[in-house]
Amino acid sequence: MSDVKLWDFHGGIHPPERKALSNRTPIQPAPLPARLILPLGQHIGTPAEPIVAVGERVLKGQPIAAASGRVSAPLHAPTSGTVGFIGLQPYPHVSGMLAPAIVIDSDGLDEWTTLEPCADYRSLEPALLLERIRLAGISGLGGAGFPTAMKLTARPQEKIHTLIINGAECEPYITADDRLMRERAAELVVGIEILAWLIQPEQVLIGIEDNKPEAIAAMRTAIGERPFSLRVLPTKYPSGGEKQLVEILTGQQVPSGGLPADIGILCQNVGTCVAIHDAVLLGRPLISRIVTLTGEALARPMNVEALLGTPVSELLAFAGLDETRMDRLIMGGPMMGLTLPSLDAPLIKTSNCLLAPTRSELPPPPAALPCIRCGACADVCPASLLPQQLHFFTLGQGHEQLKTHNLFDCIECGACAYVCPSNLPLVQYYRAAKAEIRELEQKQHKAEHSRRRFELRQERLRKAEEQKEAERQARAEKAARAKAVEAESASVPHQEVLPANPAAGFSDLQKRLKIEASMAQVALKKAEKQLAAHVTAELEAQVAELRAAAEAAQKALAAATAAAPAGADAALKKAKIELAMKRAELKKAEKADADETELTRLREALAGAERNLHAAEEASDKPAPQLVRTNKRPLDEKLRALKTELAFARADLRKLERDEAADPPALESARTRLAEAERRLAEHQSE
Ligand code: SF4
Ligand code: SF4
């Protein structure tokens, strides 16, 4: 293997390895805890959803929470017992936060559920094989925690040509993978075979740092004649970083912001491969993991296989923790691990190490000083970033500059902080900035989503309002038309003059403009009233708008009227009205038995009105009205004389009655004359 070409990645450091502390003894089974705390979110993605209830008995390996989405993973009971609680529980995080979890009270029997082993995985369809891995709840055991089945589901455009198995385990102190490779190489190799069967890559490369000779030897033996290429890497931190390992083994660089899959490469951790073996061949879900218990505060540093959910306090006690000597507790290694504020947190799928150092072993960093721009951080950054620039931008919250300077390519390896002469806690700055940017982007995404929803709602409301307004206008126009027709017919007595065309008088255009003008006027008046009651800028603007609209409507009407074929329409109408009035006056006078002089005058006036109407009709384009005469008997001369006598008799009597000094016999005579005149007229009319 020595002639196999390897590449190097930029930067990197060589911190004290301290692996010998824990890698000398075989993996021990951790004691069965009385209570297990299973956080629902032990992986990258959406937390699982509980499928058991408090008080329910569960068996070891039984599903207790289902994956809730594409990027999610189910959870299984690590031992048999009873679900004691579902709710917030301690979670392994620097903040000491609580997180939703299922608590199982162990019954001490450790009784397995029924498993479904599969000796010949090649007999399974790839989809079924993948489903087994998915249902086993496996997520990356190297520390990232990405659901494995999801990672194996390559996007259609990706053809994975290289499968890389990560056995580098480059972080100081951690030896879980080392012991795993030494002791379970056979299962590990079968796990790799299953992956290779599933992915069908052109090559399988296994990378192990040269500080693990026993693991390398064990793996060589287990691989045997299989076409897997084991490559021994020079020890350098962080060669186990996914992108760094890809570069060491293939010479290819994963593009900024991208994944190895973007260049046809898939990486899996050795622990994950063993979990795949267990899931497929034995039917066992992921309920335990190998974890390194190390640090000088422990009497017996070692690796244990512990059930997920075991409180870290119990694991440390098993390794002989002397709390008086422990300076702090780190979950993970000294470079990338998280300092836990309490020992109550449980072991989860991504916990590869519990480090309990003494103060002299890992002294707390001295106080930070200002950056002196020495550039040492940039020299060691394996992602080829400019850590000092990133630090500068984090101080000023220059989110855009941070993104431009590829903050999200930072793997938080801590190499920059390790060499910084100013003791700047650079990784903490980067983590905080990443969290801030993610939160801000989430907020922006939410705000954008809300804005779009608001705009759509406004658009819906606007359309509904327009629809209502159109309907209201249609109703108003209809009512105005009906009113106009009614007014017109009232002005021309229909029993006398019937228009040949009922629509005659106004053209359709004029009618519409007239309605519009009157509606605009009404709207203006209403808005003016509102403005008088309550002055607002909005109402003022509305009134101004309506006034302009009303004036425009009035102008349009005036223009249409002027352009009408006969301002003549108005003259015709006037003549009709005049005729009707003269006719009405004459009728009234006849009824009142007016004297002949008056009747003659009115008859002449009526004849004049008729002449005017004919003239107006000729001047307009409208057809002549059909004049319908009522059948009236002509007045005869005797009747006229009798009526005249009656009128005179009545007038004389009224005159005498108004005169207080009138002679009574003269009054009596006048009454007799009137009575006689009435009698004679009645007699004549009854003939
Ligand atoms: S190593 Fe520290 S002091 Fe030097 S440039 Fe980087 S951040 Fe500044
Ligand atoms: S923590 Fe980030 S910036 Fe610092 S060396 Fe590692 S990758 Fe580079």
UniProtKB/TrEMBL annotation:
Function: Part of a membrane-bound complex that couples electron transfer with translocation of ions across the membrane.
Name this polypeptide is given: Ion-translocating oxidoreductase complex subunit C
Biological processes, Gene Ontology terms: electron transport chain
Cofactor: how and how many bound: Binds 2 [4Fe-4S] clusters per subunit.
Domain 4Fe-4S ferredoxin-type: 364-391, 401-430
Chain residues that bind [4Fe-4S] cluster 2: 381, 410, 413, 416
Complexes and interactors: The complex is composed of six subunits: RnfA, RnfB, RnfC, RnfD, RnfE and RnfG.
Organism: Azotobacter chroococcum
Record GO terms (molecular function): 4 iron, 4 sulfur cluster binding; electron transfer activity; metal ion binding
Topology of this chain in the membrane: Peripheral membrane protein
Annotated spans, Disordered: 611-635, 654-687
GO CC annotations, alphabetized: plasma membrane
Superkingdom in the source lineage: Bacteria
Similarity comment: Belongs to the 4Fe4S bacterial-type ferredoxin family. RnfC subfamily.
Ranges annotated as biased composition (Basic and acidic residues): 611-621, 670-687
NCBIfam families recorded: PRK05035.1, rnfC
InterPro entries named among the record's database cross-references: 4Fe4S_Fe-S-bd, 4Fe4S_Fe_S_CS, Ion_transpt_RnfC/RsxC, Nuo51_FMN-bd, Nuo51_FMN-bd_sf, RnfC_N, Soluble_ligand-bd
Subcellular location: Cell inner membrane
Gene this protein is translated from: rnfC
Binding, [4Fe-4S] cluster 1: 371, 374, 377, 420
